[in-house]
Amino acid sequence: MVLIIIDGLDASGKSTQADLLISHLKNIRKTYFLRSHPSDDNFFGKRAREYLFIKTKNAHIAASLFYLLDVIRSIVLYSWRSADYVIYVRYLLGTAYLPAPLHKITFLFFSKTVPVSDNMFYLKVSPAEAFRRIVNNRVKIERFETLNELNKTSEKAMELITNSKWKIIEGDQPVKEIHEQILKKIGLKKLK
Prior knowledge:
The protein has 192 residues and is of the alpha/beta class.
């Protein structure tokens, strides 16, 4: 089993890249399992998503904590599944949404406790580009999707991934180029 983690700011292209990767895996007849967070199939994921639209400090912490519980639930319930590839979208770097310095403490704790991989990708999109995508493509904006919040989260995420196994991919490039870089770093050949 190969564990793949795709993380990044809101609107960085995480789901798009996961979908392209799944399509590729299907084409080469590999089995896969995908979990995206916050998920819509359980209490923790649903609560995390609800709190994303409330703009109070308590909601900020609640959204982050329910998100973390959702990820832990996924690991406990699904990490044993048999598949060639297991893909998590939004995983450890959800901790970057926590207030400082809690984001560092939580990240360190979880990075030592949950499965990690040599295939952890951070799609580094500029906060301005992420905000542009959000404004152009979303009906309702979440609490962390303002330009100010995206800047803060981006700074915290970069602090967390420095000196670690994360592979940073510039997320402002064309979707196809990002996909090809991910395939190459995983050791998969692109299809002709």
